[in-house]
Hints:
The structure is a single chain. The protein is mainly α. The chain has helices spanning about 5-15, 20-25, 30-40, 45-55, 65-105. α1 (about 5-15) packs across α3 (about 30-40) and α2 (about 20-25) packs across α3.
Amino acid sequence: MQLNPKTIKELRQQFNWTQQQLADACDVSLRTVQRVEKEGAASKETTMALCAVFEVRQGELIKLDDLEVDETVKAQSTQKFIVAITISSLISFTLGVGCMLLITSL
């Protein structure tokens, strides 16, 4: 499971724990805690232990970078939509003005 390394480290620091203290509390190796804080890679068992020790839901430890990417994609989609609406409005306005000029010139 991919966790947010920054979140894990921040929670550990809030408890004023060393990596070894966290490892002992979770009943995992020091190397496991180091890997989670560096890469975010954790087994389901390690994730559940971290949740229990920190008293947080699993969702709070999940990697959030993907959500940030999704928000960027949504923002780009919104910008494209606004551009499309603007172009559509300009075309409609131009056609309307053209029709009015055509009618008034008759």
